[in-house]
Amino acid sequence: MALKTRRLFCCLFGLTFGSLLFASGCKTTPILEESMAQKDRRMEWWRRDRFGLFIHWGLYAIPAGTYKGRQVPGLGEWIRRDGQIPVEEYDLFADQFNPTEFDADRWVRMAKEAGMKYLVITSKHHDGFCLWDSRLTDFDAMSTPFHRDILRELKTACDRHGLKLCFYHSIMDWHHPDYLPRRQWEQATRPAGDADFERYVQYLKGQLQELVQRYDPAVLWFDGEWEDTWTHERGKDLYAYVRSLKPDIIINNRVDNGRKGSKKGFSEEGKYAGDFGTPEQEIPPTGLPGVDWETNMTMNDTWGYKSSDQNWKSSEELIRMLVDAVSKGGNFLLNVGPKADGNFPPESVRLLKEIGNWMDLNGDSIYGTAASPFKNLPWGRCTQKQKGNKILLYLHVFDWPKDGKLLVPGLQSPVRKCRFLANRQSPDCSATEDGIVISVPEKPLDPIDTVLVLEVKNPLMIQNFPNQ
Ligand code: FHN
Fold first, then answer.
1. How many CB atoms lie within 10 A of CB 291?
2. Fewer beta carbons below 10 Å: N end or C end of the chain?
3. Residue 222 pLDDT greater than 60, yes or no
4. How many structural domains are present in the chain?
5. Are residues 304 and 453 in the same domain?
6. Closest Cα to residue 277, out of 229, 355, 317, 330?
7. Distance between alpha carbon 8 and the CA centroid of its chain, in Å?
8. For residues 211-235, b (16+ Cβ closer than 10 Å) or e, as one string?
9. Looking at residues 91-99, what average pLDDT do you find?
């Protein structure tokens, strides 16, 4: 049997029966016998699109950080745990869930106009509440006064506007009677009793089957994988199970338990299941060659809506974070926590619009680009595209040179073309022993990030100076 056919057979066999075939010496990705070429094909759209919207929405938007007149410290979506709200009391929020202003089409249009290409929404967060019409529980949107299938409406809107719909799904579940462990503070009032974690895993898989078969998500973004009940074996099994439901789906590394702490987000390469790393609220100092990763980031401090959280980042900070992540070979997933009425907070609307204004003129320097070939640029970042025998270098200038001379240190390649991305004007460009010097006007086109595009011949010639 030809190698390729054998691999394909192994892969299908592995996927169909959910068994895991460890790579053994052949050039394939670990965990599941899939060739690197197959993985590259599967990841291609994700690596091209670079920029997505994260949405944390659920019952927690109703208290919005305040419970029984008391501001509860911590993240908005953690209020049941941080407010030590008994499950019976928390469930009552379901009777109040009626986001009459919810308009999936408006949400998706705001994401699209911000330049986002995919949308990751919490199908179920740690509180266990489900945003779709699940046959496996009544703790879902259909059992509330709202009585609508939110994920179905978002799927229709994403298909209409050409965005990929993706789901965040929490392994940890503070509502399901079979999930273990119980929260420390509720063990006396909510004892484990005959809780059966294996039965919970079947529930988890049953809901994932509903989600994949009904809404065809492009990514499953797992979370809540850090408790002892979630083992490496279970992580590998769940990865294979979901891939068996939809072989070309992309799954993050939180399906397994290999992350080095929630702030690092990466798993030990090749040993744990998952297609990309998930650094949270931070951008790694450098990218990791050959490793796919995506920074997930809030616009303020909390993921789920919290009315007291007014610590909003500026569009300058967020645009530069997007560029920084992409310049290191990563994706950027920017979060909005909608309010209980179904509206995005006005600050989020404004920030998405401001980011979209920049992306309208400069999106080419983000989509389909690869990491910078430079170790360090004192004035900003660089992203690049290879097109046949030429390379496009997108120079992202955050700090505008006061003397009108922008030095690209160490670049030795002759520059064929040099222009501003936003208005296509061509400044003078000259080669010096220190690198390429571009004569720029007194004022930047965009004080947040002015993008210049250099076209050079492949292969790139860069001399790295010792102090760079
Ligand atoms: O506990 C969650 C948190 O609520 C939020 O969903 C973030 C998003 O990445 N993930 C977990 C914290 O690491």
1. 15
2. N
3. yes
4. 2
5. no
6. 330
7. 29
8. bbeebebbbbbbbbbeeeebeeebb
9. 98
Give the structural domain span for 421: 380-457
Report which protein residue has its CA nearest ligand 1's atom 6: 303
Query: In percent, how much of the chain has pLDDT > 70?
Result: 91
Instruction: Name the closest-CA residue to atom 13, ligand 1.
Output: 262
| Model pLDDT, residue 340 | 98
Tokens of residue 172, six digits: 């940890």
Q: Which helix (H) or strand (E) holds 16?
A: helix 3-16
Residue whose CA is at the smallest distance from ligand 1 atom 7: 303
Q: Is 77 in the pocket of ligand 1 (CB under 6 A)?
A: yes
Is residue 156 scored above 70 in pLDDT? yes
Name the pTM for this structure.
Answer: 0.93
Give the atom of ligand 1 at the shortest distance from the alpha carbon of 77: 4
CATH number of the domain where residue 390 is located: 2.60.40.1180
- CATH number assigned to the domain comprising residue 41: 3.20.20.80
pLDDT above 60 for 327: yes
In a shared domain, residues 308 and 184? yes
- CB of 294 within 6 A of ligand 1: the answer is no
Return d(Cα 58, Cα 318) in angstroms, integer.
25
Contacts of 210 (CB under 8 A, 6+ apart): 132, 134, 135, 136
Is-contact 78 14, C-beta < 8 A? Answer: no
